C-alpha cells in the first residue's frame, strides 16, 4: 500500500478520535461518558461512510479520488466545531479543573454504579467534564491513560486479571486480523465479490449473477469494506472492520452494565465474558458481518437505556436513528432486538413527558418550551407528548435515510423491499403455530448450548426430536428448517460459522431469570431498568426463535442477542460474589464462579490458538501458512485448481471473461487471480442470472470462460467449437485459436 493509501486509511481513525472528543457528554452525571463518546462517534462515522457510498454510487463515482475528497471534506467539517469546542473548554479551565476531576472520579463507569444523565441533564450541577475543560484530543487520550492507570492501581488482583485477559485477547485478535488473509466461506461467495463489483462498475447498480446473495443481502458491512478496498487497492485490512466491531461490542456491553447499576467489577466481568466467547474471538478476525450487526445493535441498546431516566434531546434521537438504520442495513435480524428497544425507549419517554421528576427533569437546552414540569403550565403535558412523538418520528426518519436507498433498489428490482421470494422463504419461519415455534426454539437452544460431551448432545437431541413428534411437528420440517439441513449438528468445535457459546449463554440465561424475578438482588439501585432491559432481551430471543428457521450456522445469527444478554450475566456474577452470606456458602459460590470464568478464558484461548479457519498454532497457522493457502483453508483442494484455470486464461490474453457458477460457489478468487498487473479489476460477466430483469451475458461475447461446480453446467453454456478443460471442481473454456 502506498503512503497516500496509509494516509487515507488514517482518515476514518482521525474522524473517530476527533468526534469522540467532540461528542462526549459534559455532564458529571453521565454514565461512562468516554465510552458513550466513542459509540456516538462510531455511529456518525458509520452513517457518513454509508451515505457517502450511496451518494457516490448514485452518480457512478465510486472511485478513489471521489472517496478521498469526501473524507477530506468530512475531516475539515468536524475539525471546525472541535476547535471551537476546545476553545470554549480552555476558557473554563482556570476555575473548574479540580472540581470536575472529583466529579468524574465519582461518576465514571469504571469506578462504580453511576446515575443516568447526559449533557445538560445533571441533577442541579451542570459542571463540565474534565476533557471538555482541558479540550483537545491529546487531553482526552491523556485522561483515558490516567483513568486506566488508576484502575490498575486501585483494582483488586481479580479485576486486574480480568482486565489483562481482555486486553490480551483483543491485541492477539489484532495480530491475527492483520496477518490472515480473508478466508471466510460466505465472503468468498458474496461478501467480497459484491465489493469488487462496486469497484469495477463504480456504482451500486445491480448486476446479472447466479449468486442472488450478492445483491439481496443487506450490504452495510460491505460498504465499510469498500472504503478500505479503494484506499488500499486490496483486502489486507478487511479483517479490521469486524475487529473494530468487537471493540464496539465491548464498549457498549460494559456501558449497558454500568447503566443497569453495575460497578467496576461487573463491567469487567461483562467485558471478560464477551471477549472470551469463542464466536466473538473468531469473528473478530473475519470478514463475516455478524459482529458488525451486533455492535450496531448494542449501540441502540445503550442509547435506549439512556432514555429510561431522562428526556431525549435532538442528538439522542439522531444517534438512536443512526443505530437503527445501520443495524437494518447490516443484518435485518438485529431489528428483532432493536424493535423492542425502541418500544421501551418510546414508552419511557412518554412516561417522562407526563411525570418529569428529579433527575428526569430536563435542564438547559433540553427544557421543553412550556417551562417547568408537567402540570405547572397550561398544555405542558401535551407539548411534551408532542415532543416525544416528534423525537420518535425523527428516529424512524434517520433510520429510513440510512437503509432506505438499499430498500428502494430491492423494491425496484424484486417488487419487495426484502428481496425475491427465494430469500424471503429460505430463512424466515414459514410456520408460526405454537408447537412449531417451540420445536424451533428447542433446536436453536440445543445448537447454541452444545458442548464437547457427545452423550449429552445425543441425548438432548433425541429428546427434542421425540418431543417434537409428540406435539405433531416433524423435527426436519422444511417450513422450520433452513434448506436441506438436518438437525442436529455438532457445534462445539471453534469454527467461526457455528461454534456454540454454552458458558456465556448459560450465565446470561441465569442472569435474565434473576433480573426478571429478583432484580433488586442484582441491582438494588436500578431494579426497574434491569427488569425492563431483561424483558427486552428475552423478547428479542423469543422473536428470533419464532421468526428465523433453525440452521447449522444459526449461532452466529444469534450473536447480537448474546452481546445484549451478557451484561445480565456480568451483573448476576458480580451479585453472587458480593452477597453477604456465610463464609462457607460464599466460598462455594466464589469457587463456582472462578471455575466458570477460568473455563471461559480457556475456551477463548483455544479459539484463538486452534480456531478455524484462522489460528495461531498448528496446521494452518497464520505464521506458517502462505497467503494463498490461507485463503483456501476452507477448501484446500480447490487452491491449485483455481490457479491452474486462471493461469490458462491469463495466458490467452482474454479481456472479457464469463463466469459459470452456482449459488454457493466461490467467485472472489477470480477477482484476485484475474486482476490486471496494475491492480485494475478484471471484466467479469455472469453467463447465468437469477435476476429476472438482468439477463446474463451472451457466451459468444466473451474471450474466455471460467467455471466452478459441475462440468455439465459449464459445458452447457460453452459455445460450439470451444475447448473445455476441467478438473474436479474448476474448469475453463477458450475459443479456437485464430
Please give a structural write-up.
- By secondary structure, the chain is mainly alpha-helical.
- The protein contains 29 helices and 5 strands.
- Strands 2-1-3-5-4 form a 5-stranded mixed beta sheet.
- Strand 1, helix 28 and strand 2 form a beta-alpha-beta unit.
- Helix 2 runs antiparallel to helix 3.
- The longest helix is centred in the first third of the chain and has 44 residues, at 64-107.
The helix fraction, in percent, is 55-70%
Major pleated sheet: 5 strands, mixed
| Overall residue-averaged pLDDT value | 88
Biggest β-sheet: strands ordered side by side in the sheet: 2-1-3-5-4
Continuous helix count = 29
Q: Which helices and strands, and how do they pair?
A:
Elements: H1 3-23, H2 33-58, H3 64-107, H4 130-134, H5 137-154, H6 157-179, H7 185-201, H8 213-216, H9 220-232, H10 239-259, H11 264-276, H12 278-283, H13 290-306, H14 314-330, H15 335-354, H16 380-414, H17 421-426, H18 434-448, H19 454-470, H20 502-517, H21 519-522, H22 527-547, H23 554-557, H24 559-578, H25 583-610, H26 627-631, H27 639-651, E1 656-660, H28 668-673, E2 683-686, E3 704-708, H29 711-717, E4 723-726, E5 730-734
Parallel strand pairs: 1-2, 1-3
Antiparallel strand pairs: 3-5, 4-5
Helix pairs in contact: 1-2, 1-3, 2-3, 2-9, 2-10, 2-14, 6-10, 6-11, 6-25, 7-9, 10-11, 10-13, 10-24, 11-24, 11-25, 13-14, 13-15, 13-24, 14-16, 15-16, 15-22, 18-19, 18-22, 20-22, 20-24, 22-24
Q: Could you provide a short overview of the structure?
A:
By secondary structure, the chain is mainly alpha-helical. The chain is built from 29 helices and five strands.
